[in-house]
Amino acid sequence: MITIHLTKLETALEQVKKSHPKLNPADQAMLTTALVLAGRHAVAVHEDKTYSWPDDYKGLTGKLAKEIEQVQSQLDEGKKPVKKTAKVVEAEDAIPVNVDLKPNYEAGESQLEGREDLQALFSDALQEGVEYVYAGNDIGWQWALDRANWPTISDDTITRKVKVKVRFAEGAVGSELGAATKAKRRR
Q: What pLDDT is stored for residue 88 in this prediction?
């Protein structure tokens, strides 16, 4: 399994150099670029349907908005309004949404057009598995869904905060930078 760091591209290139030391530097850079593009432009998988970013933004957000509305209505049933502090409201009222991603094979392969040798290495790397290390704004879907205006998408029926979390599947693993919780200080 190769580790591709989407924030620090030099680190990704170093990983490709270690995995394929016999390739010339230009080919190593092209392979790195293809692997990075496959992660940054990852395809969202929701209910056995794939959505490519940014073309299918409206389709995926529309599907997710319907699910979020259902979750919100279930949470709001039978709850009495209670006055809470801002921190408590944000923690309790956020609706978690998980979106599965898989590397975008087509985006990476288009970068290697005309180079069957590099396309074969690219395909092998994806089949063996890739670990993507990323920040919240490195992946197109994470960036777009974090900035989605859910009340507008749902015609103002979503009133709660939505917390979107993307996760890699289908042979790829993702590790988000800065996702750890803060350590509690002793008093």
A: 47
